[in-house]
Amino acid sequence: MSAEDVVSDLFFNLAAGDMDKVAAALTDDFVQEVGSQRNGKREFLGTMGGLMNALSQRSFNLYNVETQGNQVKVTVKLNGEHTSTLNLPIPGVAPVPPSGVTLDIPDSDFVFTFNGDKISHLVIDSQPGGGVPDMVRSMGGMWPA
Fold first, then answer.
1. Single pTM value for the model
2. Cα separation of 50 and 31, whole Å?
3. 52 contacts 20 by C-beta, under 8 angstroms
4. Residue 13, SS3?
């Protein structure tokens, strides 16, 4: 399976809420970076699992997919409707009850680095309004200062 296929499958499995398959695509020492924040595999899976559980009719649209060496760069658009309680494993973020809000998140650029056939590193460049804090606020939640 090509690296681009692994990335495509990762987003398919995220949208399906199959966090076991998402976890299988990541190395044990996986690291995600968003700005100055770094998260390990457990935190990434917990946050993404919480988001996927809270959103129905969720979809990821991928475009501008480009492979360079052991990296895959892709632009991602997320949509979904907040129909279930949002529970995130982030200190200071209280559960957010369903709001019915339809999220139309701005495009974000993702750079996946591979170690063999698994993803070892992910850098996300979120546009204003596109990060997890903005998603939580748009669903009616509060983000810690």
1. 0.91
2. 18
3. no
4. helix
